[in-house]
Each structure stands twice: as C-alpha cells, then as structure tokens.
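step 4 of 6: structure.
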Amino acid sequence: MPNLKELSAKKVRLTGGHRMCAGCGAPMVVNWVLKALKDEQKAVISNATGCLEVSTCLYPYTAWKDSWVHTAFENAAATGSGVEAAYRAMKRKGTLKDDYKFIAFGGDGGTYDIGLQSLSGAMERGHDLLYVCYDNGAYMNTGIQRSSATPMGADTTTSPAGKVKPGKQQYRKDLAEIMVSHHIPYVAQTVPVIPGTPYMFDLCNKAEKAFSIEGPKFMNVLTPCPRGWRIDTATELEVIKAAVDTCFWPLYEVENGVYKINYIPKEKKPITEWLKPQGRFKHLFKPENEHIIKMIQEEVDRRWEKLLYLAKVK
Amino acid sequence: MAKRVSLSGNEAVAFGMKQINPDVVAAFPITPSTEVPQYFSQFVANGQVDTEFVPVESEHSAMSACLGAAAAGGRVMTATASAGLALMWEMLYVGASMRTPLVLAVTNRALSGPINIHNDHSDTMGARDSGWIQLYSESAQEAYDNLIQAVRIGEHKDVQLPVMVCYDGFITSHAVENLEMLEDADVKNFVGENRIAPYALLGKEPMSMGPLDLPNHYFEHKRLQAEAMKNAKNVILEVAAEYEKLSGRKYSFFEEYKMEDAEAAIVVINSTAGTAKYVVDNLRAQGKKVGLIKIRVFRPFPAEEIAKALKNVKAVAIMDKLDGFSASGGPLFNEVRSAMYGVADGKIVTSYIYGLGGRDVTSVNIEKVYSDLFSAIETGKYEVYNYLGVRE
C-alpha cells in the first residue's frame, strides 16, 4: 500500500506546461500510473492520437520525461508492440543492456473504437505492454462526439439530444470484459486518486501490480472531462465518486481469470446521483425522458449483479 | 564466393531477409506476398535468425509495429501487396515523415476492386508520393539485390527514409529463376551490424517521436524530408557502386538497353522489361533501331538522367501497368514526359496502359508498340493515349 508522502516525492514523468484543459483528468491518470514505476526504471510510452497526445508534445516541446512515441490514432498498441519487439531482439542479441517497461495510453475513441483491433492483436500476441485507456466517454479531442464508451442517454455532438432521439441510444461497450475474454494476466478497472475515499490508492495499487506482471495488461480508467461532461472542474472528483457509488463504474480487477471487486459500496446509490450533476444528461430529467433513466438504472443493476456473480460475492 | 541457386522471387527475398537478419519483422499474409513472412517465420522457428517476428492482425498494425520498432532504433523489414499496402497507407506517410528507415518488399498486385490477385502496379504507384524510396525489380535476382541495397540506402545518415522494393506478383514472386546469392558473411558485412540508431526510443537519452507539428514548423520538416529524398540519389549510386564490387552486378537509376543509337524506345517497369528486351533483340536483328529504358528507381525520380537518355530518340512510348484514371495517361508517362520538357523536346511521346489485373503482355503486344512508334515517325500521325491488349 503506497503512502501519499512517498508518492508525492516521486519523480514527475509528465511535466507541467502541457496544454491540456484545466481540470482534465488524463494527465492526472498518466502521472499516477507512472508513479507506480520506480524512479530508476526506464519506460517507453506509446500514445494514440487524442487530447493527451496533441497537448503534451507540440514540436519543439515535450512534456514527457520518458521516451514517447505517437504514430496515429488507431494503433498505440501495435506501435507499442513494435517497440517492445525491437527491445526483445536487442536484449537477445546483447546490443541493449537496460530494462524497460512498455506502456500505451489512449482515450476511449482510440481504444474502444478505432484502435480496438490493434489493441486486441497486441494483447493476444502477449507483448509485455500495459495499455491504459483514459475513458472520458466521447471523442473529446474532435469536439465531444459519441464513442462506444459514451453512456446511454448522453448528449454529444453526434448523439445530440433532440425531440425524437434524447441523446445516445445505446449502452456503453464493456471494454474491460472484452479484455478479460483475451485471458491476459491482468485486467483492471479503476478511477483517478480521490483523497478521502477508501479506494484512494486503487489506481496506484493496480498500476503497481500491472508493472510487476510480465505480459499484456489492460487498465480502464474513468477520467473526467469537464468540457464533455459539462461539469464544474471543482466537482469532477465528486462526479467520479458518484460513478463508483452508483456502481456505474465498479472498481475491480481480474488477475489470471480471477475476479476481485476492490470496492463494494455499503449503500448502492441511485444512478441519478451520477447523471444529475452532468450537463450532458440534463435532458434526461425532463418528465418525458423518465423512462430512459429507469432503463439506465436497470442496465447498471444488471451489469453489477453479473460482476458480483463473477466475483463470487454472495 | 556467390552461390548459384534456383529460387522464386519470394524465396529470394525471404533468403535475403534471413541474411540481413533484422531485429524485427512484423507482417500479415496477403497473396502473392504471403510466402515471404511464411518462409521467414520458419527461419525464426528454426533459430536461423535473431529476429523478433510479430504476426500482427492486419497490415495497418504491421506497418505500425514496424514504425514502433524502427523508432525504437531497430533494423526492421516487412512484406505486403495490393490491399495490404493500401491498408498501410496512412502509416506509409507517417514512417517517411518520422524518418524511420525500414524495408518493405512489395509483390506488385492489382488493387481492388474488382478484387484481383494478379500483377499490375496500381498498389505501389498509388504510394509513389508517400515519401518512400521505391526500387523496382525485373527479376528475382534484382529483387534480392535491391533488398540488400535498400537497407544501406534507407539507413544512410543523409537519407533516413523507408524503402519499398517492388517486384511483380506471381510473374516474379512465384516463378523460379536461377540467380546468384551472396555469401551470408558478405551480406552481413555489406549491411553492417544492427545497432541501435543513435536517436531512438531505446537510445541513450529519452526521446519524443511523432509530435504535433503546427504551421510554424510542419513545412520545414517536410522541406527536410524532401531534401533527404534528393540526397537519396547520390546514396543510391554510391551503394550500387559498392554492391557492384561485391556482386559484379551493376545498378543505377535505370537500365538502358540498346539505347545508343535507338530511334524508337519504350520506358517500362519490372518484369515486362524481360519480354521487351526479347523484342528489342528481334527487331535489332531486323536492323531496326530500337531500345528500352527500364526504371529501377522511381522515387527519387531520376528526371534529368531519363531526359538525357531520351535525348536522341525520335519517338518514345511510356508504359504504365496501371491506369491512373487521370484521363491523361499513367503516372510514369506523365513524369517521364514532364522530365523531357526543355531537355528532350520535339519528340513523339506516347502513353500505353497495359497488363491490368495480370493481363498477359506478350512479345506481340510489345512489337505493336514499336511498330506504332515507327509509324508515328514515318507519318507524323499517332495517338498519344493508348491502351494495349484490351478488348474495346
């Protein structure tokens, strides 16, 4: 179990001065993941096109202290697997002495959608790579278009809330479960560090565990986007807490096929606590859309029950 | 000592890759290129190479993994054809702009649609402006020789660009030819040891590669990329000279065949040159002054040199094994004709589109081109844009 003092003293690997929006969750997720590395450990990071990529490495500047590569939107996993393959060959030939960790970062667009094939391939091939998806539930970089990670009912620029269609018509894809079906050594779903919660270090613990395992690993991190979610930046961690407490976003991990729920709320909150603070769900609270909230609640309950069953929680 | 062997084009390329022993090969099967990764994965399975073979789930990922591996500092190769190259498209441009040397063996095959597995040049000709160096090969021997030279050309400090080695699907990839292979040690010595590129992800200092490049820098980077392509011209000749010492085989930007006093010439790419040389020999035996130019290097395009080589002809037919759908001739035609402007003016210059989707190109077809040229010289009447061997 890490402590805050030690974590704070660790080297910052994604420096300030990058151009992410105020309140963006992505750099915070990146830094917490990278803090799980030992200071002396070397890493190569592969980054899918997206907010994180365009805002952290604008020629001639880079915010990255580690080696970092971006080639395109849909291929962070494939690019990372190529780096890792070169590393293996060089180590085998003795032309490279140092050890490296390999990490890929992508948003939900680059991971759930356009990059899913590349991710699946890299995971199946067994590269020693930790893929971290910062899931903010839409294509935020291009201006808040829906992705397959966008929650049902959300108002986005390509699933706008109109008179006939009140926002996104589909439930979100369950990517963590798709990764579990790859039977890779480690899959985890988590949230950024939220001080004062029982799961404050959940992300750090999971990243640390992931780095201790050789082979393909996947982490899905619910990441606030104040612009896309239409929330006040000051309240973003409260909104994330609501995602956990309503079981919209359960914290769990699957290690070698064994499920473990890392946090079970004492009292499961109604889904409205997650929906209400976010402007993207505002229209759902009109009387004519009540049935949609009911549907969302039922789906969240169904998925939570399934997870409890898989984790053998009585 | 070189070895005399009988190999198909794909075998020759795969054996060449084995001798080069790259750090990473990431590939995806596609007809008629499939044999290359197939043979190569057997070398990996047998422990005959040190390479990490990455059997990716698509050509897009093949090129992405290759770029990752090259950015890491490794020596990298792959192979593809047709739709596979098309799926790599986005990454071709990225690879060239990242200045990552790597070698891609392309067995030229028609692009869909309709789907067709046979040879034409619509795949690599479409990629002609992606920033890759393109070397074309008449035979398995040339594919092998080009492959080995490609490593040196792309990795040269003044170039640092990816290289495509192109040879005709089935005609060259699957037909077995007699060729000379270099000794393993000679290839190893020629390409040099694989070492981590000095500026690379796994190099001494951490490095960011593939930044966002806005209007205040993008143009300068593209200008540098263009300069690297220009530099490649000298490097290609230097490497060819060194390779000639090793192999006895001479390479340049293009081959001039019986061009000294030729009045009628054709310009052609890849295996059709073999058929065309046969026709040239026959016509020469009849006393006709004919010659041909076979393009080896299409990117960088040796414009000045080609124009010079065509300076004394009366008529030239330029043959494209693809239709550029420009409604004004194929890309080779347009580039050669443009190169001639102001240098070799006043010639009859015609375009022939031929052999699409693997349509056989026989000596009779090539004879017709020469006869058209002579008729044009005699009468002054001719069509600029022609299709050869198609039912209309």
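step 5 of 6: annotate
 - Residues 151 and 359 of chain B are 33 Å apart (CA to CA).
 - DSSP finds twelve helices and 16 strands in chain B.
step 6 of 6: archive
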